[in-house]
Write a sequence for this structure.
């Protein structure tokens, strides 16, 4: 489990990201209710998102999915369950969380997950 001050730092990052996403999605006229019904592929790599190469609709879809992940992570923080891998219950590495605060799996499980999905 990451130390408490690390979680507070990550919470700050998540809160900021949440606000940015909400502002952006409001401009695109997507409401929170709408995004709740959004189909999201799990664990997309939002970091790779580029505004130049994606069309607007795709960008909005991905950002709303990211917001969903961010909101979920904030819920987990409230519950005190944040930062644990959903597959093996091990603490997710802090550096991984810093790069991707809404990561649900540790690096090991993430690899297994990706492999399984490729085989499907
Ligand atoms: Zn794991």
């Amino acid at each position: 489990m990451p130390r408490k001050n690390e979680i507070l730092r990550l919470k700050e990052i998540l809160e900021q990201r949440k606000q940015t996403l909400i502002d952006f999605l409001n401009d695109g006229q997507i409401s929170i209710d709408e995004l709740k019904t959004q189909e999201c592929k799990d664990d997309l790599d939002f970091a790779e998102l580029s505004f130049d190469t994606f069309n607007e609709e795709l960008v909005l879809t991905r950002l709303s999915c990211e917001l969903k992940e961010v909101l979920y992570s904030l819920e987990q923080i409230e519950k005190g369950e944040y930062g644990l891998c959903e597959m093996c219950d091990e603490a997710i590495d802090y550096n991984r969380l810093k790069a991707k605060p809404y990561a649900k799996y540790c690096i090991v499980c993430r690899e297994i997950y990706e492999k399984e999905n490729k085989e499907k």
Remarks:
- DSSP finds five helices and no strands in the chain.
- The longest helix spans residues 4-27.
